[in-house]
Please model this.
Amino acid sequence: MKLLIALEDAILARHASSHLSSCGHDVTVAADVDDALELLASGLPPSVMLVGGSCARVSLLLATCAELPPARRPYVILHGQGLDADDPLGHAAADVDDFLVGSCSGREMEARVRLATRIMALESQAASARDWLVFAATHDAVTGALTRSAGLDALDRELARAARETSSVGIAAIEVRGAIAIRDEHGTVAYDLLLQGIACRVRDALRTYDILARASAESLFAVLPGVDASSAESVASRLRDCIDGTPFDVHVASVSVTCAIAITTAVGDADDESTALLARAEASIPAVIDAARLPSRPRLRASIRVRGSAYPTIRVKRGLLS
Model:
């Protein structure tokens, strides 16, 4: 445990440093509150900070700690000696985690540090659990993409950014043709593997700051900052090639699917809402399907083995054997 001691009482500071160091803690002693401020400014990240002194200087130190990022913010134990006797914490109570008043033994200091360690561990666990819950609530469990609602929230943010910067934003509606048929033929495990593979390829084809979300059982959508009507076709072609080009291995078979992609764009000065923009993109899918005459059934490729011998590959397309 890293500790920073910033006490104006030099005798108490030496006593605390000696005892806490003997207990195995990594202790740094600041000459005064100003020295502690310099140590914090230099990037020293103590886990626990024991402070005490005049109200004005201590309040400044506590305010500095409160402005640090949560990951670097130390657990603050305030020693009340030298503060207002009627209110040992003074007006800085909101920034203090624990306090000691008057003279205190080394054992009491060590007990408070152990308590700080336990509290910080619980806070870390709570933060991890909160982060996991937020991720689970905003991400699709199969593809790892954002959920529909989280994707629309991201689109709202990009539309607001486009309005501020007078730029454009595009949304690509991606409908996979034949995924449900593969689920009916091979089961949900193969279906999940297919969707995972599609999401992985689409993410690779997108830019690092583009956003992918799952819209429904067979459809995804991507938020494309900066994409306008002139670049929409090249983006759609790149996304289409990553899905249509190579079969997907779903363990029980190698399957090929096709997709229909429609991209709608909005400029910053337009009064567009995310739901309406996605609806326009999805409404364009049937026209894309008709223009491309995409098949509604997937092409399957399976290899059958009997007694260790591999029979010739059977190709299935639209229910016909060839």
Observations:
- The chain has two domains: 2-135, 148-321.
- DSSP finds ten helices and 16 strands in the chain.
